[in-house]
């Protein structure tokens, strides 16, 4: 295909990017129609880069401006059906296959819309730097996103070589990551990297703030320096955004790595299930509360408050639970309001159309 750039001229078998029997089955009708299977590597507003069995191509996204909801827009990790270029210079993205999983956050525009960070992910690596003060609330927020996506979270503590008390740090993070593997790693010494590679499965996304060591960790997994890295400020442990694109890269031992830009803000979007899994111990205790609608604030017979009093759950943990629940409820209410507004707007358009039709008929009589 002429659209393949010269530096991507070598074959790129889709199986290296996660193509399997389930994908083949889902694509059967598209293949019968003469379409080409592909996986989106990078997505922009009107076009995208996608990998096919013959190389990486740039494809046009028709009607890109009509994607009112970012959740419906193509994104990195999507499996797609491309229509080969005939008269135009590029193939055309014809359809997106149904997503198995989707990592979604509240839109950075602070609207009620969600934004898909990555699609069809199997493992979400939540990166936490040990070279900076631990922020458990941020870790809980990222875990909620990861659980909600449908993928398996793994917490990776990076920069272990810069930590003076590894045991305490690991215990603290394990306390907020119930049911999740917590691995201590160092890209400098190689600590924990062998164990990490045995845990990671399928398509892997690295999630975390700038400066957490995502790109450095990704380079170790890739076995070469493919991802840009940058210095971190000593005063607060924050780094610059060295990754500006989301991109897919096959790993030498199998699987696919999806590197994301560092996220300054990670808002929740319809993440009730993810929160329930992140705070599973609070959800379990809530079953023993006297009142079924207990808010765990000041109600008598609250099993959760009793656990806090007994030192089984920290007050910080409960406060974080309440804070994220409120944020998620607010996001959901904004979404519902937008949907109601959209429905009302549609009704008004229909009414205006009918009125115009009636006036036209009356004039014709």
TrEMBL record:
Record's function text: One of several proteins that assist in the late maturation steps of the functional core of the 30S ribosomal subunit. Helps release RbfA from mature subunits. May play a role in the assembly of ribosomal proteins into the subunit. Circularly permuted GTPase that catalyzes slow GTP hydrolysis, GTPase activity is stimulated by the 30S ribosomal subunit.
Q: Which residues form the CP-type G domain?
A: 110-266
What is this organism's lineage?
Bacteria, Bacillati, Actinomycetota, Actinomycetes, Glycomycetales
An annotated GO cellular component of this protein is: cytoplasm
- Identify the domain of life: Bacteria
Q: Outline the extent of the EngC GTPase domain.
A: 119-264
Name this protein carries in UniProt: Small ribosomal subunit biogenesis GTPase RsgA
Where in the cell is the protein located?
Cytoplasm
| Quaternary organization | Monomer. Associates with 30S ribosomal subunit, binds 16S rRNA.
Q: Which HAMAP family match?
A: GTPase_RsgA
Q: Which GO terms describe its molecular function?
A: GTP binding; GTPase activity; metal ion binding; rRNA binding
Among InterPro entries, the record links this protein to: G_CP_dom, P-loop_NTPase, Ribosome_biogen_GTPase_RsgA, RsgA_GTPase_dom
User: EC no.?
Assistant: 3.6.1.-
- Designated gene of the protein: rsgA
The free-text note explaining how the cofactor binds reads: Binds 1 zinc ion per subunit.
EC category = hydrolase
Q: Which residues bind GTP?
A: 158-161, 208-216
What does the similarity note say? Belongs to the TRAFAC class YlqF/YawG GTPase family. RsgA subfamily.
């Amino acid at each position: 295909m002429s659209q393949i750039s010269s530096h991507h001229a070598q074959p790129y078998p889709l199986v290296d990017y996660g193509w399997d029997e389930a994908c083949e089955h889902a694509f059967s009708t598209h293949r019968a129609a003469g379409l080409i299977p592909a996986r989106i590597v990078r997505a922009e507003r009107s076009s995208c880069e996608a990998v096919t069995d013959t190389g990486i191509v740039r494809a046009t996204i028709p009607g890109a401006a009509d994607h009112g909801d970012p959740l419906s827009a193509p994104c990195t990790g999507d499996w797609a059906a491309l229509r080969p270029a005939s008269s135009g210079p590029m193939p055309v993205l014809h359809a997106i296959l149904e997503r198995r999983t989707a990592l979604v956050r509240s839109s950075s525009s602070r609207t009620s819309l969600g934004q898909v960070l990555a699609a069809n992910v199997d493992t979400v690596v939540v990166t936490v730097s040990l070279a900076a003060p631990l922020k458990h609330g941020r870790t809980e927020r990222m875990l909620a996103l990861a659980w909600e996506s449908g993928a398996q979270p793994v917490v990776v503590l990076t920069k272990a070589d810069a930590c003076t008390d590894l045991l305490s740090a690991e215990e603290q993070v394990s306390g907020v990551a119930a049911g999740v593997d917590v691995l201590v790693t160092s890209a400098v010494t190689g600590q924990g990297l062998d164990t990490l590679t045995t845990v990671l499965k399928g398509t892997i996304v690295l999630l975390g703030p700038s400066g957490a060591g995502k790109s450095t960790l990704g380079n170790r997994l890739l076995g070469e320096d493919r991802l840009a890295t940058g210095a971190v400020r000593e005063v607060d442990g924050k780094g610059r955004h060295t990754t500006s694109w989301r991109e897919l890269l096959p790993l030498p031992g199998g699987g696919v790595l999806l590197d994301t830009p560092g996220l300054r803000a990670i808002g929740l979007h319809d993440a009730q299930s993810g929160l329930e899994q992140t705070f599973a111990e609070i959800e379990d205790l809530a079953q023993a509360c006297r009142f079924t609608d207990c808010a765990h604030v000041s109600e008598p017979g609250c099993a959760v408050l009793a656990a806090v009093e007994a030192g089984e759950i920290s007050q910080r943990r409960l406060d974080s639970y309440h804070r994220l629940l409120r944020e998620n409820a607010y996001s959901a209410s904004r979404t519902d309001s937008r949907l109601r507004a959209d429905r009302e707007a549609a009704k008004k358009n229909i009414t205006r159309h009918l009125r115009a039709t009636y006036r036209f008929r009356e004039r014709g009589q």
